[in-house]
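(Deposited chain)
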Amino acid sequence: MKYLTDEKRIKAVTVCFTDLEGRLHMLDYDKKFLLRSADNLTFDGSSVRGFSQQHESDLRLSIDWSAFYWLPSDVFGPGKVLVFAEVRGQDGLPYLADMRARLKDYTAAMYEKEGLVAQFAHEIEGFLFRGRDAERNYPERGAFEFISTGGYYHSLPGDALRRFIDSAAEVQRAMGFGNEKDHPEVAPSQFEMNFTHAEALIAADQVQLYKLLCRQVAQNYDMTACFLPKPVTGINGNGMHTNISLARKGTNLFHDKNGDSGLSASGWSFTERILNSASDICLILNGSVNAYRRLDPHFEAPNQIKASATDRGSMVRIPLGNERSARIEVRSVAPDANPYMTVYTLLRTGLEGPLPDPAEIASKRARTRFLPDNINDAIRLFKSSKFVADLLGEQVQTRFAEVKQASAERCPRALGSLIKTAEVQFHHEVTNQYLWNKF
């Protein structure tokens, strides 16, 4: 607060929170007002899908001042900073549906009890389409228009996609999280930008920042950065490959040069627990109707419930690694997933989830099993899972299933070979009051 008071260049503060489905919400406060009112920031929770009911609408925001970022003025306007916040109930206690607070508390307890630090790095793919608000205009246009027809690693330096990537990478650097590499992806107009691994909560925040800055940079170019898992059929979809490792006192606990694929026994235990609950948690990792188009084995889709060092159709890949980089990569995560819920779920499942019977592990590894191929099956498995009830609590389990069911019921049950307008129009990162009520 002292820094905010003393720094004369700051004029306004953007306070962010994330709803249950993973959509980022932002409130802009005048700095002087915020300094007077930081302990009493409220909003109408009944207007946020998955949050409170109308009769209990008011919720509070508690700012996490450690999650403070300057917003580059050439992209977001002068004198602005951004902070993340947690949601509190009317009683001031943590709100059950706020997964950021759940993740923050869990990682703090993990470190305090066992000295464990979880490191995450997300590889987020997206598409760049011509025109602003291409997703919300989809019902009228009926298609997305590629901005570039290049492909994997070979767009020209002056190509519109390449210029967008360079601009977005510069914004990332200005906001303080390093961009390790970036490139056009396999599909036309598709991009991927890889940034440095970070502790679990920071890594989840960075997912939200990354998507925010990509969308804003694209809009400044009169384009749309799209993170729908499969906005166009016949080409690869978008994933959010999630790299995970655990450390204690700086030692990577997943590394064992003599272990199977270089992974330690604790790394394999973590992996087996995730695989054992894969179908139960699939809705968390793939929470939209459109996400199940991506889990198509014809387009490098990671839909097989297994781990492999080489097979990219596996839900979990074991990348080549050393003492510093040994990790697992969960490839079945969609970029529209709630990053806090995803990180919390993968972390807690890997540490506490049920292990398969030792006698069954070998047969399960050999047998090809698949993730659900449609959201309705994923919802059914999610709702009936005792493990998910323990993981999220029955109230959040029910509420999450309800909002996903509401979207699913507006879309055809059979995906077919063509993108349906409804799966774009009613997607949780796209829809608004006007689009939702056009049904």
The mean pLDDT is 93. The CA atoms of residues 59 and 90 lie 6 Å apart. The first strand starts at residue 12 and ends at 18. The chain has two domains: 2-93, 112-436.
